[in-house]
Write a structure and sequence with these properties.
The protein has about 170 residues and is mainly alpha-helical. It contains seven helices and no strands. It has a domain at about 5-100 and about 150-165. The chain is about 75% helix and about 0% strand.
């Protein structure tokens, strides 16, 4: 049964997509990028919570209170993969329709930071050329999707280590 995986995968994907949308609406991807540099780190709270709840539900509701380390990781990865499909779909819409100027906003912000740090025009030109590919759609899309699965794996492994429970074992989170 993949009920917990689908449920929490959907919640993860929608939750992260809503987080990105909220950041955009607050201007954290446009005219308030300096705030967005910090707010982005908090998005990890979404998968941290949903993976914990998903692995816990799988253990307590579907596996009679037991879950192995490997089963916990598998559950977490399924949640992450399902969430990633939703996130990937959202990112396509986001970068193509909601904020197609994402890269330009980012480049302008980073150029301003370099000017304030006293970088030369030549240094700025070199850095801007490097950043163009980093802020492009493909890199942002790959970062968002691969990052979601990678983060999900790391969180799942850590949670599974503490949440595993074998027959007869009583104490766990």
């Amino acid at each position: 049964m993949l009920k917990a995986e689908f449920k929490y995968g959907i919640i993860t994907g929608v939750g992260i997509s809503l987080w990105i949308l909220l950041e955009f609406l607050l201007g954290f991807h446009t005219n308030n990028i300096d705030m967005g540099e910090y707010s982005t780190y908090f998005v990890v709270l979404v998968p941290l919570l949903t993976l914990y709840l998903g692995i816990k539900e799988k253990r307590d509701k579907w596996n009679k209170g037991q879950i192995s380390f490997n089963s916990g990781i598998k559950t977490g990865l399924m949640i992450s993969l399902i969430g990633t499909v939703i996130i990937a779909t959202f990112l396509i819409i986001y970068f193509n329709y909601l904020n197609p100027d994402y890269a330009e906003w980012g480049l302008a912000y980073h150029k301003k930071k370099m000017i304030l740090r006293g970088k030369s025009s030549a240094e700025i030109a070199v850095e801007m050329e490097k950043m163009k590919s980093t802020l492009g759609f493909l890199n942002q899309f790959l970062y968002g999707t691969i990052g979601a699965v990678g983060t999900g794996f790391i969180i799942s492994a850590a949670l599974s280590l503490f949440m595993k429970r074998t027959p007869g074992e009583k104490i766990s989170i």
